[in-house]
Specification:
Elements lengths: L1 E3 L1 H21 L1 H5 L2 H17 L7 H5 L4 H17 L13 E3 L4 H4 L2 H22 E6 L3 E6 L12 H11 L1 E9 L6 E10 L2 E10 L2 E4 H19 L8 H9 L10 H22 L8 H13 L7 H4 L4 H26 L6 E6 L5 H8 L1 E10 L5 E7 L5 E6 L4 H10 L7 E9 L2 H20 L12 E4 L2 E6 L4
Parallel strand pairs: 1-2
Antiparallel strand pairs: 3-4, 4-12, 5-6, 6-7, 7-12, 8-9, 10-11, 10-13, 13-15, 14-15
Helix pairs in contact: 1-3, 1-5, 7-11, 9-10, 9-14, 11-12, 11-14
């Protein structure tokens, strides 16, 4: 069995169609004797000629929206086509049985980096990284990274208060919410877009029906998230020593409320660099500079609030290692911020929030909503370019997409316009359902809740489109005004 990402399957299909297009033009007479085949070939040529396979309404874009079974069927048909006419492809289609898999940071990284990550972290930690993060290099959007639904944040669920805190302490985002009323139980849909520590991005989140949660319960949930992250910052921690590591790094001993944020950040970065130094050493060009100077510059950048690396560092890192380092910096900042949140929370049974909901499981997403998958696309408003994209081929509570290498034009545009990054992007959020009935119910729910979603405090007046149905089982909500 050969496992392909959805993107790889589409690339193979388009490659085969292009090869057949060339073959048909060179061997037109071969088809003239067969009326049916000739007519079909002419129809194919007309489609190919009209779309050029690359523009915004091309076969490429259409194929990427197909469900898994449909993509695999087209892939197999294209493979038969290449075999029948002995078509030459730059990247031959996979032989035998094929299936689709989700991309991840370990699967999409170059083999030498993957081997090095596994060698430094060991298989157990590498598997954790694989479960928490993804990095994809797609044709349209470039390098996209983000959190997977298995990431530690899922342990905390979500509440309106987190949007308020995020916009004042951590991020600069637009956020909104829709209460979804269903016979099988209510749920909460949340959408986000904006500046994620320098990366333009968007998110979809599904949570349980709003209910109250106390300070002490919420504090325990936040502490559980922090403990999971500490294992990624310092992969050498034994499972039984996480509590000791938390006490050492966070100052969680006795009545001590914790170390100051800057000191915590310094401690985390020291742990991070000690864990990653072998990866950095092997995957950088350090001939012209001393390794110690490089690590000094790296530490200064990690401590800073700058989103982009200085040129002297950027030139030494491959795109995938760069993406890993950026994601690790985001992780450090995230831990510092949630630890600040934890330190500020009270140890009592008073209500922290009345809008908290747990992260919905795949089973709940199917039973409550009939959800089959989700897609987040992030676009720059000034030119309409797609800069980040992520598709989940199964029902998961969280879908994220952050641009990792198409950020400079958007940042420059925000400087020219004197606007925030969150105002310079919009997202197209696709929701794929198992049947038309589920899609229709979801569309009606969203349309009914749209006025409240627009008035949500952390939406900051941003435009939210009416839910659209491009086909029977897909609903699209656009967040932000298009270019």
């Amino acid at each position: 069995m050969t496992y392909l990402t959805h993107e790889q399957a589409v690339q193979g299909i388009v490659g085969a169609l292009r090869a057949f297009d060339v073959f048909y033009r060179r061997n037109r007479r071969q088809f003239e004797g067969n009326t049916v085949l000739s007519r079909n070939a002419r129809d194919f040529r007309r489609i190919v000629g009209n779309t050029a396979l690359t523009d915004e309404n091309s076969i490429w874009r259409i194929l990427r929206k197909l469900k898994d079974d449909a993509v695999l069927e087209v892939y197999r048909d294209c493979r038969l086509l290449t075999e029948k006419y002995n078509l030459r492809l730059r990247s031959p289609l996979a032989a035998g049985e094929v299936a689709l898999r989700s991309s991840s940071i370990m699967e999409d990284a170059p083999r030498d980096i993957t081997t090095r990550l596994t060698g430094v972290f060991g298989p157990e930690i590498s598997e954790q990284l694989d479960n928490y993060f993804f990095i994809e290099n797609t044709r349209k959007s470039g390098l996209t990274g983000g959190w997977l639904h298995n990431a530690p944040q899922g342990k905390a669920g979500y509440a309106d208060e987190f949007d308020y805190i995020a916009n004042r302490q951590i991020l600069t985002i637009h956020a909104t919410r829709f209460v979804l009323r269903n016979p099988a139980g209510n749920a909460m849909l949340r959408l986000w877009k904006g500046n994620y520590l320098g990366s333009p991005g968007g998110e979809i989140g599904f949570y349980g029906a709003p209910r109250s949660v106390t300070n002490d319960k919420m504090k325990d949930k936040v502490a559980a998230v922090t403990a999971e992250f500490l294992r990624l910052i310092n992969p050498n921690i034994e499972a039984g020593n996480i509590r000791r590591e938390a006490e050492d790094l966070l100052g969680q001993t006795g009545g001590f409320r914790g170390v100051p944020p800057l000191e915590l950040k310094r401690r985390l970065i020291d742990r991070l660099l000690s864990s990653d130094q072998e990866i950095i050493r092997v995957n950088t060009d350090l001939i012209s500079r001393g390794y110690s100077f490089f690590m000094r510059d790296m530490q200064a950048w990690l401590m800073s609030s700058d989103a982009l690396l200085p040129r002297q560092l950027l030139a030494m890192l491959s795109p995938h290692v760069l993406a890993v380092i950026i994601s690790r910096k985001q992780m450090v900042n995230f831990i510092v911020n949630i630890e600040e949140l934890r330190q500020g929370m009270l140890d009592n049974s008073e209500v922290f929030s009345n809008s908290w909901g747990h992260s919905l499981s795949p089973e709940e997403l199917v039973s409550k909503l009939g959800l089959a998958g989700t897609t987040v696309q992030v676009f720059a408003k000034h030119n309409g370019n797609l800069i980040a994209e992520r598709r989940e081929h199964s029902p998961v509570f969280w879908t994220t997409a952050f641009a990792l290498n198409n950020v400079l034009p958007v940042h420059l545009q925000t400087l020219r316009q004197g606007q925030l990054l969150r105002d310079a992007i919009y997202t197209a959020n696709h929701f794929h359902f198992k049947d038309a009935e589920s899609a229709g119910r979801f569309q009606d729910n969203v349309a009914e809740e749209l006025p409240e979603a627009k008035d949500y405090q952390e939406n900051h007046g941003e435009m939210i489109s009416e839910p659209a149905r491009p086909n029977a089982t897909t609903v699209i909500i656009k967040y932000g005004r298009e270019a």
